[in-house]
């Protein structure tokens, strides 16, 4: 079956110049863990997730720690988030973005999601424009 | 690609009741039990999107949603196969209630909320998305009431942007929002005459008044103006013709009028997007609206029933 037949047909996306504060509002209200980044023509250019924001707001050595209990003060997270709240998200975007085409086979989307451990993958048309996303739950529902 | 814009969508909550009495004495409670109820995404553009999707036409629905009821709207649209592109707001999407008394479904009682107040930054977000969508739009439907906080000139601005991008515009609105969009020359104009019983300050009660008002809108640049005459008839005014389209059916057959007008417009768009003649599109549109009005379901999904209802539609030049 084609990706276009199983995907969630939603175009929720952001542009790279929106502030971090607005991104958090969108992720919270749309109940999405991440959101595609597009240019003014709707062409997929990147991806940004809750995880990217947490990483941006934590100290650089965080990745080497096994537990958040090693962080002396969680207020650091709050302070850093407040500092970057009005910054454009551009600095925190993943530009090496994975995507599938709407004409791809469903197994290609499943392979990406399972192998890369991502929660969803953006779907683009032949011109690279965002047309939807395949979520883990779309796959589970589809293959049941 | 067809894009519908519903700035003030709703959750449509419908209740069927045996009778509806208002209590005129003080008592603790006064209960009316519903025989059945339905919940669905609503709003003019949303209804058109759902109808088109049920006929297999890919389309994108845009607008504002918020809160728990906003999720109901988005979820329902996705289940219907419509592509969603809504801006999330700080407020809560409105709920519109319809009470249908069994045996008197042709006279529903409607309670419509005014909708959430839209902030300037939320409007900016929508306009950015709208600009992006125009790069792939062939038809743009601007439909329904405006929520509080939105400038009445917005439909005019959006219609001009769509025309500049090469898309044809269908406008279904009333009051100042409609009046201020006419100079943007939408392709089709369908005035919402439910509350605004006048266009350009003129009452729309007689055929002559409707035709005069329609000709004025055509002179502003519209190609087709469709104005409701009564519950089973509309008048369409173009540059060259004036048509009366009529459904021959008793109103007692109506089971649910909510959304039927939107389905009419959706039917016209469905045919025009396939390069049908205006006459053919008008007949199909009214047949689709009639089929919806005669079914309990808000929006008819059965093409065979619509085709059958075509026999009930007459179209005469005035």
CATH uppermost class of chain A: Alpha Beta
In terms of structural class, how would the helical and strand content of chain B be classed? alpha/beta
CATH class identity of chain B = Alpha Beta
Question: How many strands, what sense, and barrel or not for the largest sheet of chain B?
Answer: 10 strands, mixed
Trace the largest sheet of chain A across and list its strands: 3-4-5
Brief summary:
The complex is a heterodimer of chains A (144) and B (318). Chain A has 144 residues and is an alpha+beta fold.
List the helices and strands and how they pair.
The complex is a heterodimer of chains A (144) and B (318).
Chain A: H1 3-6, H2 20-29, E1 34-38, E2 44-49, H3 50-57, H4 75-84, E3 100-101, H5 106-116, E4 120-124, E5 130-135, H6 136-143
Parallel strand pairs in A: 3-4
Antiparallel strand pairs in A: 1-2, 4-5
Helix pairs in contact in A: 3-4
Chain B: E1 2-6, E2 10-17, E3 34-42, H1 44-54, E4 59-65, H2 67-79, E5 83-88, E6 94-101, E7 109-112, H3 120-134, E8 139-143, H4 154-164, E9 168-172, H5 175-179, E10 188-189, E11 198-199, E12 202-203, H6 207-219, E13 224-230, E14 233-238, E15 242-247, H7 260-272, H8 278-293, H9 303-309, E16 313-317
Parallel strand pairs in B: 1-4, 1-8, 2-6, 4-5, 8-9, 9-10, 10-13
Antiparallel strand pairs in B: 2-3, 6-7, 11-12, 13-14, 14-15, 15-16
Helix pairs in contact in B: 1-7, 7-8, 8-9
């Amino acid at each position: 079956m084609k990706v276009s037949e199983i995907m969630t047909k939603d175009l929720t996306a952001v542009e790279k110049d929106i502030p971090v504060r607005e991104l958090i509002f969108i992720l919270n209200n749309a109940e999405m863990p991440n959101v595609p980044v597009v240019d003014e023509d709707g062409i997929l250019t990147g991806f940004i997730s809750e995880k990217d924001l947490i990483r941006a707001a934590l100290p650089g050595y965080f990745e080497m720690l096994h537990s958040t209990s090693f962080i002396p003060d969680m207020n650091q997270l709050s302070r850093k988030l407040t500092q970057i709240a009005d910054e454009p998200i551009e600095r925190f975007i993943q530009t090496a973005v994975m995507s599938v085409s709407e004409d791809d086979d469903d197994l290609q989307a499943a392979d990406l999601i399972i192998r890369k451990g991502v929660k969803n993958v953006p779907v683009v048309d032949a011109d690279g424009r965002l047309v939807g996303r395949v979520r883990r739950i779309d796959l589970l529902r589809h293959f049941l | 690609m067809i894009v519908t814009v519903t700035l003030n969508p709703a959750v449509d909550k419908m209740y069927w009741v045996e009778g509806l009495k208002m209590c005129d004495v003080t008592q603790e409670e006064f209960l009316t039990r519903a025989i059945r109820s339905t919940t669905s995404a609503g709003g003019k553009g949303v209804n058109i999107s759902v109808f088109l999707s049920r006929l297999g036409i890919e389309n994108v629905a845009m607008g504002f949603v918020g809160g728990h009821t906003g999720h109901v709207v988005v979820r329902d649209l996705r289940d219907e196969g419509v592509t969603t592109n809504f801006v999330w707001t700080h407020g809560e999407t409105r709920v519109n209630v319809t009470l249908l008394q069994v045996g008197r479904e042709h006279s529903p009682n409607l309670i419509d909320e005014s909708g959430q107040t839209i902030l300037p930054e939320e409007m900016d977000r929508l306009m950015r998305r709208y600009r992006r969508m125009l790069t792939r739009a062939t038809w743009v439907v601007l439909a329904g009431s405006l929520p509080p906080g939105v400038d009445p000139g917005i439909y005019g601005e959006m219609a001009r942007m769509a025309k500049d991008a090469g898309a044809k515009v269908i406008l279904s609105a009333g009051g100042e929002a409609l009046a201020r969009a006419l100079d943007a020359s939408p392709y089709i104009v369908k005035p919402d005459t439910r509350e605004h019983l006048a266009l350009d300050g003129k009452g729309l009660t007689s055929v002559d008044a409707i035709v005069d008002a329609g000709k004025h809108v055509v002179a502003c640049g519209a190609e087709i103006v469709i104005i409701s005459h009564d519950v089973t008839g509309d008048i369409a005014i173009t540059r060259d013709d004036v048509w009366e389209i009529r459904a021959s059916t008793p109103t007692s057959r109506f089971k649910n009028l909510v959304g039927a007008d939107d389905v009419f417009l959706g039917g016209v768009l469905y045919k025009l997007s396939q390069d049908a003649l205006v006459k053919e599109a008008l007949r199909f549109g009214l047949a689709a609206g009639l089929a919806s009005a005669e079914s309990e379901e808000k929006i008819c999904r059965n093409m065979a029933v619509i085709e059958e209802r075509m026999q009930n539609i007459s179209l005469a030049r005035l």
